[in-house]
Predict the 3D structure of the following.
Amino acid sequence: MDQTFHATARKARRSFMGKALAMGAGVASSSAVSARAEGEDAILKLPPHTVGLGQPVAARGYGLPSQYERNLQRRESPGLTRVGAASVSFAPLQSLFGIITPNGLHFERHHQGWWDINPEHHRLMINGLVKQAKVFTMDDLMRLPAVSRIHFIECGANTGMEWGNVAVPTVQYSHGMLSCSEFTGVLLSTLLDIAGADTKNGRYLLAEGADGSSMTRTVAMDRALDDVMVAWAMNGEMLRPENGYPLRLVVPGVQGVSWVKYLRRIEVGDQPYYTKDEVMHYVDLMPDGRHRQFTSIQEVKSVITTPSGGQVLMDKGYHNVTGLAWSGRGRIKRVDVSMDGGRNWRTARLETPVLSKALTRFNIDWVWDGGPAILQSRAIDDSGHIQPMMRQLRAVRGTRSIYHNNAIQSWKVTETGEVFNVQVS
Amino acid sequence: MFKFLKPQVSAVLLLTNFFCSSASIAQPSGNQAVGTQATGAQAVGALAKPWLNLGRAATPAEVKAWDIDVRSDFVGLPKGSGSVAKGEEVWEAKCASCHGTFGESNEVFTPIVGGTSKKDIETGLVANLARPDFPQRTTMMKLSTVSTLWDYINRAMPWNAPKSLKVDEVYAVTAYILHLAEVLPSDFSLNDQNIAEVQKRIPNRSGKVKFIGLWDLKAKPDVQGELCMSNCKVSAEVASILPEFARNAHGNIAEQNRFVGASRGVDTTKPPLKEPLKVAIASGIADSAKLAVAAPKTPLALAKEQNCLACHGVDQKMVGPGFREVAVRYKGNIKAEATLITKISQGGSGNWGQIPMPAQPQLGSEDVKTLARWILEGAK
């Protein structure tokens, strides 16, 4: 019924537009057009939802987005990976609002497929340099003093396809390995306290997942004692299976690979562990042929999401240009926006809340004159770190690093209003 | 695996730590929701912590079962051994289907072997990593610690049956890979005693640097932007943009955007707009950009629409095999999806009899994938 409704609407619009164009505006010589002169059908013809009975409560036990929002899906980038169980899907940043990512649109990265694990049988072990190796059930963990905090998670390889040149059309694919949620869980420091961790000799922790890959990553003890969480919830509900149900590590400001999903074990040790994802992957190739290892911090970064690549502006005139800024070093202090490819900048408004290691939404007024433009945003965090230009990054790190690309993003707007992903010299 | 401190030392250290630093451990220093934590940790007093008895002691057998990690100093490495010859057997049975007979395959994963030289084994640096024109980075080019290879095979391989290899098989497969990379001779047997010597022959063993600037928040970043606000010295010339032939490579962008609001996704099945969207819509050219909503189509409806059901039953063979027969044949085959995608789009014959399956060039890649997955999942 809905498709029909749409088709009808489309037909009506086309026939009206066609006629209006053919006859010239303001010429009323048919009943269709004269009806239109009185006003819009959307107002004058009452639709079924205004004159009929709607759906009852609990028609859907777990609510779903409107059917008209179907275009918003997390999507794979064709050709990026060859195996769906070791792949990534990108969040549709171009159509999201505020700073919280809807759980169903949170980006995915799996190393050996995802599972829906029965929480009753899930266990977390803490061992290594501890007074007593411990085992926690979900019951134990969820009884502990909990915290809820809003943090972004970004894959270290986000924007990684663009080190050499433009490779993807839209912000979904260029920046969509990025999400932000309110996570609820227990501080890892609380668990280390219970186990009696040797925090002096135990300068490192190993976090390990319960899935087939048993993903492992080294985490610094000073972070573990600061803001690392063992979380079971995101945005008010339990974690989604794709995001590690029933338990994941939250390492604020650090690349997503360290946020180990299906978390089964934390080991306290006196050395880093040199795991597969610290030796083979998540190492940044420098121009001299050496790889940087243990690069973890997601540095200050921002991107305009509307308008962005692959979109087309509907009209000249006013546009509220909006985007996201974030930093793994702390709070966003300021975001500047340029409409002329970086020659001149204006400071954008920051929407609240502005939280440490969380996405911050910014916006700025723009009156588009219909001419070509290149839109850029540049974020500054409260550590004083300024988001660099692509050429500044390349001057130090070359073009083959894959990881930690936090360059200023450029979107070119043409006279037709079409927006293209570009890089400027 | 963690290294035990000497017992008496550790007892003192740990007890000291337990009583003296526990208060500071529980203090949250994240700058959100500090108040929330305070109600838990401080309202009852720093010494009270009535939750300290939650959780239970792990048994030695439990720790042994899960504590499988092997560090770069080989702490955690179990005793055992495996020869190159034995490794070849295991490889051909369990690894070659994904990684190729010689670890060279690029079909499913990035190649494991290739790109290293005898010279690299001497220098400890893989020369090809410095060459921007070198096409790919294999596992052996990047590998710097042999413990990592052992640990990963042990915990995550084979792909569809992780942790099923015996300890000696893990040694053997590790040895075989290192043999393929010309690090070990064909008569070598790798074990827990000689692995430290083998480490000294890993081609890229000196190829990593720990970069503190992106690890420690107190360390300085290596790249800093500029705060120029007006008349900044930039050329603002477009240096890179997607070529027009790649316009629709990520699917129709019109169907990946909301169809109300300040902007639309552009219809990438068509060339770039020649006039503003408002004019294009009015003349009917850009209609789909305005109103496209990707309609979900059930795979069965898709199969019907594409006339698949003319030759295939859901359950049983008609001209070609039933979909569920196909699912049964490919069960457990990790290349099944890729194979089926090729079969559907390019056609083929001989697998289910002599009548050829025609190529289906009219199907978009998304539709082919949908059909392949649906068939493999039992055409439900």
Notes: Chain A has ten helices and 24 strands. Residues 301-422 of chain A form a domain with the Immunoglobulin-like fold (CATH 2.60.40.650).
